[in-house]
């Protein structure tokens, strides 16, 4: 059994469906009950990816249970995060890279930024929590990309080194079934 969030956003034709844990599903429900303002809320996917949801753009969230879906990956094979270690060790940011999927208002498919470094990932999520207007990151071609935060419906960050290439492909298919490019365009 897999839990999903099926989220309908303003100015988006299709819903976005995200597999999540029971704990994060319940935490999101509690957050929505107690929330008096919009802004972003952070949860994790079932695969332990970081998700930021723009509540200002949400119309409806369905909390679904799928009794028929088989989990496409073995969760126990996900490696612990080096950027956000469970212990008290100093986080690593220089050699950590993220694939970032950004659904922008009015755009059917997510903007995918590949191999964004750990420093830029920190820039992104602190921009959301600090109510900034834009975040700027360097893409895989080493070119800056500026994105308006208020126009982001949802953002999902995947710490690449935590998953095998096969797992990355399966996870990407699960979060973005309409558009699945290779997990590593450089052939790594």
Description:
The protein is of the alpha+beta class and 188 residues long. The protein has one domain (2-71, 81-175). Helices cover 19% and strands 35% of the residues. It has helices spanning 22-34, 118-129, 165-175; strands spanning 2-9, 16-20, 40-44, 50-54, 58-66, 97-104, 111-117, 134-138, 144-148, 152-159. The strands form 3 sheets. Strands 3-4-10-6-7 form a 5-stranded antiparallel sheet. A 3-stranded antiparallel sheet has the order 2-1-5. Strand 8 and strand 9 form a beta hairpin. The longest helix is centred in the N-terminal third of the chain and has 13 residues, at 22-34. The protein is globular, with a radius of gyration of 16 Å. Mean pLDDT is 84; it is low at 179-188.
Characteristics of this structure?
19% helix; 3-stranded antiparallel β-sheet; alpha+beta; 3 helices; globular; 188 residues; disordered C terminus
Summarize the structure.
The chain is built from three helices and ten strands; from the N terminus they run ββαβββββαβββα.
Can you list the strand order of the major beta sheet?
Answer: 3-4-10-6-7
C-alpha end-to-end distance: 33 Å
Mean pLDDT: 84
Q: Over the alpha carbons, how many angstroms does the gyration radius reach?
A: 16 Å
Largest sheet: 5 strands, antiparallel
Structural class: alpha+beta
List the helices and strands and how they pair.
Elements: E1 2-9, E2 16-20, H1 22-34, E3 40-44, E4 50-54, E5 58-66, E6 97-104, E7 111-117, H2 118-129, E8 134-138, E9 144-148, E10 152-159, H3 165-175
């Amino acid at each position: 059994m897999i839990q999903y969030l099926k989220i309908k956003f303003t100015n988006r034709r299709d819903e976005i469906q995200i597999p999540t844990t029971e704990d994060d599903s319940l935490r999101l429900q509690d957050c929505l009950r107690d929330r008096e303002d919009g802004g972003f809320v952070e949860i994790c996917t079932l695969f332990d990816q970081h998700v930021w949801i723009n509540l200002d753009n949400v119309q409806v969230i369905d909390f679904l249970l799928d009794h028929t879906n088989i989990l496409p990956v073995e969760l126990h094979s996900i490696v612990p995060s080096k950027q956000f270690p469970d212990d008290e060790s100093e986080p690593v940011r220089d050699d950590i890279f993220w694939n970032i999927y950004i659904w922008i208002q009015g755009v059917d498919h997510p903007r995918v930024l590949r191999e964004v470094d750990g420093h830029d990932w920190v820039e992104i999520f602190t921009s959301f929590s600090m109510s900034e207007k834009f975040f700027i990151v360097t893409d895989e071609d080493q070119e800056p990309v500026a994105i308006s935060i208020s126009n982001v419906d949802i953002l999902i960050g995947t710490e690449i080194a935590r998953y095998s290439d096969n797992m990355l492909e399966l996870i990407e298919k699960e979060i973005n079934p309409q558009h699945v490019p290779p997990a590593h365009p450089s052939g790594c």
